[in-house]
Amino acid sequence: MRIITGIAKGTRLKAPKGLDVRPTADRVKESVFNIIINLELPTAEDAVAGAHVLDLFAGTGNLGLEALSRGAAHALFIDHSQHSLAAIKDNIHTAKLSEKTEIWRGDSVKAIDKLSQLGRTFRLIFIDPPYNQGLVSAVLLKLDTTGVAEAGGLIVVEHSKHEPITTQWQYLKLIRTERYGETVVTFLMR
């Protein structure tokens, strides 16, 4: 696992030992970012350049770090696991991106409420929860109702093909879905 392009191109990223973390494969990540950079957002020319990024269920920080390497202004990584947070800290340090990052330990769903109370918004949000635990729906419902996702912002969800995403939201709009074996990546816009 490595950063594919940008200022930290080639940096190898570490993952915590065990089966609790399922890092996004490089080929999937490259495809996801190719889609992201070619999407036209109503509020920005580029979903990544200058964006504030939220990486929920961050695991290794792989997606948020890739965004920072490609020109994002800041990334907030949230995960509940101490092992994941240690890996994220190591990866941030290795990629030399410390000045653009923030790390929170806690429940990603509950963190959205806290971010909303603080008035924090993000143009690019990555969601990569443990598969088939109902977390995708819970997070999307919070993002739909809180305004943490900027108007015109992009939400990228990595989930199991066995956990389809509902389309019953007030503010979120499904714009694209891609399948990579057992993994599905869904792109939504607020």
TrEMBL record:
The keyword Isomerase does not apply. It is an enzyme of class 2 (transferase). The keyword Membrane does not apply. Its EC number is 2.1.1.171. Keywords: Methyltransferase, Transferase. GO terms for molecular function: 16S rRNA (guanine(966)-N(2))-methyltransferase activity. Coiled coil: none annotated. InterPro entries: DNA_methylase_N6_adenine_CS (IPR002052), RNA_MeTrfase_RsmD (IPR004398), SAM-dependent_MTases_sf (IPR029063). This is Ribosomal RNA small subunit methyltransferase D.
